[in-house]
Structure formats: C-alpha cells, structure tokens
Amino acid sequence: MADGPGAADHQRHLHDMLTALHEELRALGPVSAENRALLERLAGDIRAITGTDPGNQTPDRAFKSRLVKAAAAFEVSHPQLSRSMESVVDALANWNL
Predict the structure, then answer these.
(1) What pLDDT, in 10s, does the model give residues 26-70?
(2) Residue 54: helix, strand or coil by DSSP?
(3) First and final CA of the chain: distance in angstroms?
(4) pTM score, two decimals?
C-alpha cells in the first residue's frame, strides 16, 4: 500500500475488515467440498495478511481473485458473507491494491 496521508488508516481498516471476514468464514456452517476448499484457502490468505508486519499487509492479485470467486459462489446461499467479501474487494480497489 502506498505511503502518505491516510495510509496507516487504510492499513488498520483493511486489517479490521479481514479479521471480521475471517471470523465469518470460521462461523460458516456446512458447504460443499469445493467451496470449503476455497474458504480454507481464503482463511489462510487472511491469516497470512493480518499476521504480517502492519506495514506489509498488501494482498496479492490471486487473493482478490479468490475473493471475487467466493463472493459469487456464496451470493445466494450466504448473502451476508458474499457482501462482506465484496466490501473487502471494493476497499482494495478503492485503495488501488
């Protein structure tokens, strides 16, 4: 993430959003094996991002791609989870990540 005014706020906000999303993933009930694998991968990505040095929390493009895929997969069955994922994707786009 770029340095400058507000960068630290963006980092904190991203960390908070990802932490909340991780909790939603952990609380999710039964899903298909394919979707469970996707969610486990996302949960691992989130743990890796939020566990790093606060100045190095920039998600890679593959993470964003997996989030978009997961948001679409859960749009009907778990709409709140889907909206949470879309919020993270939107925030990353707004911050040019």
Answers:
(1) 888 888 898 889 888 888 888 888 875 555 556 778 889 999 999
(2) coil
(3) 7
(4) 0.79
